[in-house]
Structures are given as C-alpha cells and as structure tokens.
Automatic annotation (TrEMBL):
<dbReference type="InterPro" id="IPR036291">
    <property type="entry name" value="NAD(P)-bd_dom_sf"/>
</dbReference>
<comment type="similarity">
    <text>Belongs to the D-isomer specific 2-hydroxyacid dehydrogenase family.</text>
</comment>
<dbReference type="InterPro" id="IPR006140">
    <property type="entry name" value="D-isomer_DH_NAD-bd"/>
</dbReference>
<dbReference type="GO" id="GO:0030267">
    <property type="term" value="F:glyoxylate reductase (NADPH) activity"/>
</dbReference>
<dbReference type="GO" id="GO:0005829">
    <property type="term" value="C:cytosol"/>
</dbReference>
<dbReference type="InterPro" id="IPR050223">
    <property type="entry name" value="D-isomer_2-hydroxyacid_DH"/>
</dbReference>
<dbReference type="GO" id="GO:0051287">
    <property type="term" value="F:NAD binding"/>
</dbReference>
<dbReference type="Pfam" id="PF00389">
    <property type="entry name" value="2-Hacid_dh"/>
</dbReference>
<dbReference type="InterPro" id="IPR029752">
    <property type="entry name" value="D-isomer_DH_CS1"/>
</dbReference>
<dbReference type="Pfam" id="PF02826">
    <property type="entry name" value="2-Hacid_dh_C"/>
</dbReference>
<dbReference type="InterPro" id="IPR006139">
    <property type="entry name" value="D-isomer_2_OHA_DH_cat_dom"/>
</dbReference>
<keyword id="KW-0560">Oxidoreductase</keyword>
<feature type="domain" description="D-isomer specific 2-hydroxyacid dehydrogenase NAD-binding">
    <location>
        <begin position="111"/>
        <end position="289"/>
    </location>
</feature>
<feature type="domain" description="D-isomer specific 2-hydroxyacid dehydrogenase catalytic">
    <location>
        <begin position="7"/>
        <end position="320"/>
    </location>
</feature>
<dbReference type="GO" id="GO:0016618">
    <property type="term" value="F:hydroxypyruvate reductase [NAD(P)H] activity"/>
</dbReference>
<protein>
    <submittedName>
        <fullName>D-glycerate dehydrogenase</fullName>
    </submittedName>
</protein>
Amino acid sequence: MKKPIIYITRKLPESLLQSYKEYFEFHMWKEEESSVPREILLKESKMADGLLCMVSDAIDAHYLTQNSQLKIVANNAVGYDNIDLQTAKKNEITVTNTPDVLTETTADLTFALLMATSRRLIEANQVIRDNQWKNWSPYFLAGTDIYNKTIGIVGMGRIGTAVARRAKGFGMRILYHNRRKNPEIEKELQATYVDFRTLLTESDFVVSLVPLTKETKHLFNKNAFHQMKQEAIFINVSRGAVVQEDDLFEALNKGVIRAAGLDVFETEPITADHPYVSLDNVICLPHIGSASEETRTKMIQLCLDNIYQYFYGDGPITPVF
C-alpha cells in the first residue's frame, strides 16, 4: 500500500512525526510562526490525502472544492469555524478537532486574563518598566476584587465548566447561559442558569466561551455592553467574531464598562495600531489560550492519531462528523 501523503500547514517538531513516518509521507510548511501562503497551500494540497491544519487556516468552500481528493482534515483546535463543514460533507471529507486535551490549559489562561485585567497587572508592570513608580498612595493602580463577585459564563461547555470550577475556588457566585441547562454543573458548583440579559445585568465579570456560529456572531454588541454594569469586566477567550469590535471599543473608551481582557480578535493577527491597543483598560493577548508546551504537544499528537486511526484503525478518535 502506498503511504498516504499528509500536508501540514506549520512546521512541527520532527520528533512528533517520527513514529508516524512508517505509515505516512509528510509534506510540511517550512515556518512555525507564519501561515502557509494560500497559493502554496492550494498547490501542496492537490497531492495530499490528508491535511493537518491550524485554526487560522481558511479551509473554505473554494479550497475543499479544489481538493476534493482529501480524505481527512485534522484541525489543531477545538473550534472549527475555519472549515466549511457543508462542503466537506458534500465531498465526503472527514473533519476532526482536538477537544478535551486543551480544556484545563485554556481555563487557566481565561482565569489568568480575568485576574490580570481586574488587578491591572500589565499596567502595573509597565509603570516600573517606564520608571514611573514615584511613590505609594492608597488608590495607586487600584483594581477590583475577584473574591465574592459574580461571574457570568456564556458557553458552559468543557472550558466554561473548568473556568466555573476555578471561580468556585474564589468564592464567586456563578451564573451561566448556554443552549441548554446543565443540572450536573448546577449541583456540583451551585451555578445558576439565567437568560442572556440577566447574565449581562448581574455579572461583575462576563466571560465569553461560546463557539462561533451564525447565532453567536456579534452576540456581544452595543446593546449587550450597555446592559452590563458600568464596573463590569468583559473577557473573551472564544472567537473574536462573537464581538462587534467597534461597539466594544466605544464601550471601553466611554466608560460604559470597566475593562476587557481579550485573547481573540475578529481578524488575526492584530498589530500595535489596533484601536484596542490604545486603551489602558484592555489587555490583548495573541490567541494563546491553549499555549502551554504540554497541551500544544497533546493537540498535535491527537491530530496525528486521528489521521492514523482514519487510515489504519477503526476511524478517527474525535471526529466532528
């Protein structure tokens, strides 16, 4: 049997590929930190049987139509809004993702971002770097407490549940809004299911962990921000497009809400001239929710295992369909 050809859209450590080389012929983009150019992706994919891609790669209808010979697309992420699922199904291309393995790491980052934003840690660090710490005063860089506050989690999936467990440790009241209620989580964490409006109006911290869908695109818009408390902090570690960015900028700039911590943006990467970067009450991170060495390695291994099980086993481990 001829080895299936797998194209990988980022440079990965050879050590992760070594045990699979007996079964596959790997072709790989040469850069770890830059996206493969579109024309090269299209060209390389035409000879491939499988694709290991990143969430930033647009696996759209045009790409899938041009590469209908693909058998499997292994997406190195939980979300798969970068893939046109309808066209993949039409061409009988299996799609997989990487749930579970990044849950706790992403929850860590979410809560770290919440803490850093509420306690103004980046601003405080910059004061010293700029040699501006001249004296001490009672309200110098005063932030807001986390303990005993109310957190509202929009999207109580695996990551949302893990964030709720961390919030429980801080003595927080936990509200959540989801497509459906989760009685087990309510019992375990004393979380309360509420409608979206109630969550916005009662939460001190509003955390977005929803997938990007037609229903959630621009869910957080001018109307949503104006329903939040003036002292509320907004955290987004889901997808950038769930936020109407102009509306969030206006809300932050005019003091409609207190602050925001953002790991994702509608168009990535952003640069230093992005409007958010000009605001002192925003922390921007470069989409590093799952970025620990251990977790990123597990994600890549799961992608490779999905591909192996598709071709040589009983089917992929974590198929989207």
